[in-house]
Write a structure and sequence with these properties.
The protein is mainly alpha-helical. The chain has one domain (about 5-95): Multidrug-efflux Transporter Regulator, Chain: A, Domain 2, CATH 1.10.1660. It has helices spanning about 5-10, 15-20, 30-40, 60-70, 85-95, and strands at about 15, 50, 55-60. A 3-stranded antiparallel β-sheet has the order 1-3-2. It is elongated and about 55 Å long.
Length: about 100
C-alpha cells in the first residue's frame, strides 16, 4: 500500500484480514466484507491496511474505521497526489542513471 498507510500503521499491532474478520471491533464479519472495506471502502471511508507479502491491518485501524463509519461527518483525509509530466519522469530517470 502507500507509504502514507504504512506510516499510519507503524507501531501498531498488525493482524491479517482473516484475523480482523474473526474479531472486527467485537463482532465477526465475513472475510469478504473486511476485504471490501480495505479495497472499496464504505461511503468513502477505507480500512487502513498495508501489504507485506499479505494484506494486514491493525486493531487500531479497525477502531478508527468504526469511529469514522459511525460519525461520517468527520472529514476523510485523502492523500494529495502530484501528477508528473512525461518530461519530469524522464528527467528523474536520467538523474538517477536509469536511462540515458
Amino acid at each position: 500500500m502507500t507509504t502514507r498507510s504504512a506510516n499510519l500503521l507503524e507501531g501498531e499491532t498488525l493482524i491479517t484480514l482473516a484475523e480482523a474478520a474473526v474479531d472486527f471491533g467485537g463482532i465477526a464479519l465475513p472475510l469478504n466484507t473486511v476485504k471490501k472495506y480495505v479495497y472499496r471502502g464504505f461511503q468513502g471511508i477505507k480500512l487502513e491496511s498495508v501489504s507485506l507479502n499479505h494484506r494486514y491491518t491493525s486493531r487500531e485501524a479497525i477502531q478508527r474505521f468504526i469511529e469514522r463509519k459511525q460519525n461520517p461527518s468527520q472529514p476523510v483525509e485523502k492523500p494529495k497526489i502530484k501528477r508528473l509530466s512525461q518530461q519530469e519522469v524522464d528527467a528523474g530517470l536520467r538523474r538517477h542513471g536509469l536511462v540515458k
